[in-house]
Amino acid sequence: MKMIKRIQLVALGCVCVSLASGSVWAAQSKQVVGTQTLKEELAKLDNMQQAYQSELAKMRQLREQYAAQLKKMNEAKPAQSTLSDSKYNKLKEQLDRIQISGFVRAKYDSDDRDGIGSGSNNKHFYMNLEGKMKVSDDWDAHFQSETRKGYTVNQSWRNGDPGSDDQNGTFQRIWVEGKPANIGIALGTKWWGLGFQNVPFGHAADGISVDYDVVPSWNVKAYWLRPRQGDLVTMPNGQETTITGMNITGNITKNLAASITYAGNKDYNGDQKMSQMGAFELQYQATDDILLRGAFVRTNADDYNTSQEYRVDYKGSKLEQVGSYGMYVRYIDFERYGDYSHDDEWGSLPNDAKGWLLGGTFVPFKNVVWETFFSVQRRNRASSVDHNAMRHLLRTQIDFHF
Predict the structure, then answer these.
(1) Alpha-carbon distance 208 to 171, whole Å?
(2) DSSP per residue over 88-142, as a string?
(3) Is-contact 233 350, C-beta < 8 A?
């Protein structure tokens, strides 16, 4: 600021001197000028020129000082910004080491009684919380916590206790995942799914899997699993055995993919009713809006030893796109010993069931999806209790994703 004032004073002085000089010169030009007078005027002009040169030098000096100071200030800004960016990036890196995601669900079922349907067991509020923690560039640690709060008292897992302690939010599953040298590894207790629709196996288990992309569009996976979530959906006393096997998944064409699964287990005293399983699945993107999927599974059980599911999806809801929607129809035929343990999707796909489901999804708000479906199923074909009973299930649920 002082520098700018000095420049202004110098400029003002120059203007004043110039105006005064112009007035004197104009007055004298009207008179006869003698030799002595001309000499005096020339001397005055010389003095004025020296004054101008002196003030001009001062102005140049001030300008150079100001330019140097401005340059110094501009050079200091990137350094300060770099320091700030460095701190920000370090903080961001620390925050990115931990990622939390999941959803909160409100669900209502209209279902048949236990033995045919699930009764009131799926009238609940539920939260799925998952965490991913970066160990290194190659490894991540994970956890999953489930909390279920039934809003009716007559739910089977409470054993007559009307309290609200259902699944209480502990870390039910902990595992690590990594890809050192482009080899995928998963180790720990987690939910495992095989195939496009989790028909061969979809269950919680302790285990390890190792997979590798043999070519860019084909993956080979080997796994060892010990089920831990109580009795399996299809295999009796499944928690008493271990499952080992292999899965191959890849693209046959741009729109057609296939998945082949093989697994074996030890059949302890015949309790598991099976010791081998094979599955073949196809997935075909018929158009931009239509996706077709089919799965066929077979075990070496003596009877009731196949499982099938066929599904058609139209469009599909997108969490970030308000107003998006999807519709689907599913046909199921899960025989009593037809797979190792397909995903029962909260009791809507039990074992020993044959029927269909018709449903849809809709996104009313960003990251909120509403799903409703209706299903008719023939149950207990391999049992004398409630043999061939018909089940009617209506389910509606809304998920709030975070």
Answers:
(1) 19
(2) HHHHHHHHHTEEEEEEEEEEEEE-PPBTTB-TTTT-EEEEEEEEEEE-SSSEEEE
(3) yes
Please name the residues in contact with 149: beta carbons below 8 A apart, sequence gap of 6 or more. 124, 125, 126, 164, 166
| Each residue's pLDDT tens digit, 60-95 | 887 788 788 888 877 765 555 555 778 888 888 888
Q: What is the pLDDT of residues 261-309, one digit of tens each?
A: 999 999 998 999 999 999 999 999 999 999 999 999 999 999 999 999 9
Sole residue written with tokens 């009877």 = 303
- Closest residue by Cα to residue 209 from 171, 178, 237: 178
The pLDDT confidence band at residue 313, using thresholds 50, 70 and 90, is very high
CB atoms within 10 A of CB 395: 22
CATH number at residue 387: 2.40.160.10
Taking residues 13-17, report their average pLDDT: 41
Helix count (H) and strand count (E) of the chain?
2, 16
Domain closes at, from 74, 92, 110: 92
- Please tell me the distance from the alpha carbon of residue 117 to that of residue 137, in angstroms, as a whole number: 46
Query: Which residues are registered as beta bridge partners of 100?
Result: 131
316 and 377 both lie in a single domain: yes
pLDDT in tens, 369-399: 999 999 999 999 999 999 999 999 999 999 9
How far, in Å, CA of 285 to CA of 315, rounded? Answer: 11
Tokens for 399? 């998920």
Token pair, residue 379, equals: 């149950």
Among residues 43, 63, 92, the one where a domain terminates is: 92
291/144 same-domain check: yes
Number of domains forming the structure of the chain:
2
Domain around 57: 2-27+34-92
- Taking the C-alpha atoms of residue 397 and residue 370, their distance in angstroms, rounded to an integer, is 6
The answer to whether the predicted template modeling score (pTM) of the entire model surpasses 0.85 is no
Same domain, 184 and 134: yes
pLDDT of residue 157 exceeding 60 = no
Distance CA 335, CA 389 (A): 15
